[in-house]
Specification:
218 residues; alpha+beta; Phosphorylase Kinase, domain 1; Transferase(Phosphotransferase), domain 1; 2 domains; 6 helices; 22% strand; serine/threonine-protein kinase; kinase; Meiotic_Drive_Suppr_Kinase
């Protein structure tokens, strides 16, 4: 099935049978999936990702809010071109993107399941971020749920905010935590972390970032 045929399948068999809602802009999109064959791969704050069994190497990212932002993400993928740590854009519609599928486990899920995160993954993401900066982008919103690892390699799976001009320290903060805490004390034992604990850390970190933005510098 080529991309044009796949687009027809998306618009006939996927889009009419899913409902995406966003009660809270800080939480992932909620999905009601009434399709026959499409699998929900995951959801972010703006969009949800689906896969079809006949197209195992691609996914479809459907925007559930701020649909106009899809134009910015398309431009980001054009700027990135082909890079081993990023997905690729194969096609798009009015509210969806067809992307190369990156298999693996997110750093967030690795923490929950007790899967060790090797230093090479962190190094790969550092290099990917440097590359994005070299092509004129601003790598924003790189965090544990947007980074995937497979076979000891790291990949960034969400670049939707790379066009923004804001200063984002999420990856810097995660990297510091990795080297200061995880690498020194947890990498060898790699225990499982409860979901409630990680969500508590995530919410506390988000509140701290909001407070820092509101607090004027001395």
């Amino acid at each position: 099935m080529n991309i044009e045929e796949f687009k027809k399948t998306i618009e006939k068999e996927l889009l009419p049978f899913i409902k995406l809602t966003s009660p809270n802009p800080y939480d992932p999109i909620l999905v009601e999936n009434q399709t026959k064959d499409w699998l929900l791969v995951g959801s972010g704050n703006y969009a949800s990702v689906f896969a079809h069994p006949l197209m195992k190497d691609v996914v479809v990212k459907v925007y559930g809010r701020d649909v106009e932002a899809i134009k910015d993400e398309i431009r980001v993928y054009h700027s990135l071109g082909v890079h081993k740590a990023y997905s690729r854009l194969y096609g798009h519609g009015e509210n969806y993107l067809i992307l190369k599928r990156i298999h693996g486990i997110t750093l967030y899920d690795a923490m929950i399941k007790g899967v060790p995160i090797p230093p090479q993954v962190i190094e790969d993401i550092d290099q990917a971020i440097d590359y994005a900066k070299q092509v004129g982008l601003n790598p924003c919103d790189v965090h544990g749920k947007n980074v995937v690892m497979k076979d000891g390699k790291g990949f960034i799976v969400d670049v939707s905010d790379f066009y923004k001009k804001e200063i984002c320290t999420k990856w810097d903060d995660l990297q510091k935590a990795y080297h200061l805490f995880y690498k020194r004390f947890k990498l060898k034992k790699h225990p499982r972390f409860p979901v409630w604990a990680l969500n508590g850390v995530r919410k506390t970190y988000r509140a701290t970032r909001i407070f820092r933005k509101k607090t004027p510098e001395n």
